[in-house]
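Following up on my earlier message about flavin-adenine dinucleotide. Here are the inputs again, as you asked, copied directly from the submission form:
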Amino acid sequence: MALKTPAQYVESLRDGRVTFWDGERIDDITTHPRFQLPIKIVAEDYVYDDSEYGTLRRYKAEDGQQAHRIYQIPRSEEDLAVRVELMQHTSIGTLVTGVYMALMSVKDDVAKVNPQYAANIERMYNYCRDNDLRAAEVITDPKGDRKRRAHQQDDPDLYVRIVERRADGIVVRGAKLHITAASLVHELVVMPTKGMIAEEADYAVSFSIPVNTPGVKIINRSVAAAELNPFDFPASSHHSMPEGFVIFDDVFVPWDRVFLAGETQLASRLAQSLGLWERTGGMVEAVRISELFVGLAQLVNEMQGKDQDPIAQNSVAELIAYAEMLRMSLDYSCRHFESTASGMVYPNTLGINTAKYYYAVNYHQTVRYLHDLAGGLVLTLPLESDLRNEDSGKYIRKYLHTKPGVNVETRMRVYNMIRDLTADAYGGWQFVVALQAGGGLPAQRLMMRRSYNMDQAKKRALIASGAELPTTP
Ligand SMILES: Cc1cc2nc3c(=O)[nH]c(=O)nc-3n(C[C@H](O)[C@H](O)[C@H](O)COP(=O)(O)OP(=O)(O)OC[C@H]3O[C@@H](n4cnc5c(N)ncnc54)[C@H](O)[C@@H]3O)c2cc1C
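Thanks, got it. Here's what our run produced:
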């Protein structure tokens, strides 16, 4: 087995997968204009040359073979730090393959309930790693009426469920929504979206299947246009990734690809493990973006001669506080890691959930500082084509002049970055992603309450109050 080349990755997508986009059934995504940019972005993660990133991307796996580092199981703080670095330089289309970290981190717990499922996790992990495959995180069900449980919905298929158990495997039906890069990966790793009770045994299901499995259909949607020039779209031209509405129309899954089939006590354990790794990825991106906010705000201030203005300086200070809180909390979570029984380390549960929560609840008001400083040009700046057109370009250069030393083209690039990142289609995507991706705010609130040392907090509160401590029975 070997690492794939970018060309082999592209070729591997030509496998009969059933995809739709904008009303069209697409038989070969590799030749369709809508998929060109996202495929190119994911293909770049298959470049394993001797450059800095090419080297960062690969590691020597346990069997001595080279593999993409997304599969490296962290065993130390240093490994986690390298993983964070990898995440900073990897497309979301590859990062979702981190779903295997979630599976490997619950393997010990799964083994206690069903050793065969644990063996399936390990075998599938090895298979995907050794074949240099990418996998999507397929967890969010449509969920119907949020007040009712999975088995109480008007339509029993509103959560993915087992409709048939056979000697050779299970048949599943349902859909999973918002699945990042579903059409661009090789494997769909399905998990329950939340804990399940005894009556929901058919909904406690987890497995991995190839995207081209009969009965799988993916309807795509993306904020990005088919073509994005890097001058006008400096952020989204590097991030154009469709989300998939994934349908499982009575799909057969052989037993050796099943990780859970009715053991409800494991459902929330799987969902939570994925949440942790998704939120870790979200924090890596949050740190990157929040640092950009600081730089962009300061550049706008300096370019427009308002860097000495106290209000403008306050806004930059607010942006620094946000960026540093995020950076420090990600750093803390990796330094104070936790471990599984078999020695895999993962970021601190309370730390990551608190960090992600802080990032999400403060994101919108933090962007406001940047918008406030930057002014209306964020939305109304002419396009690059108008700058390059001599007749219109000369006016753009003349009237966008601010002061000596400020290059108009640089100023335009800074404004395009602000618009693309925070105020255009991709910016709108970021607004919702901050809140919902990796699980909405309630998921983090729940995990914070579960992982906080409440007994210690209560004890300290009682002591501080001068009250008597309850006697332990
Ligand atoms: C761009 C993007 C990419 C994503 N990528 C993936 C992916 O790759 N894989 C994946 O599996 N998922 C993915 N998600 C899905 C994401 O995890 C969910 O959007 C998130 O968990 C919220 O679920 P929901 O969208 O079903 O909204 P809802 O469940 O409707 O939740 C929205 C809000 O409704 C409220 N609410 C929910 N339930 C209740 C209730 N019972 N009672 C009262 N209030 C309630 C809460 O305030 C909650 O925040 C992605 C989402 C986005 C936006």
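One observation from looking it over: Residues 96, 137-140, 143, 146-147, 176, 178-180, 243, 432-433, 436-437, 439-442 surround flavin-adenine dinucleotide (CB under 6 Å). Hope that helps, and feel free to reply on this thread.
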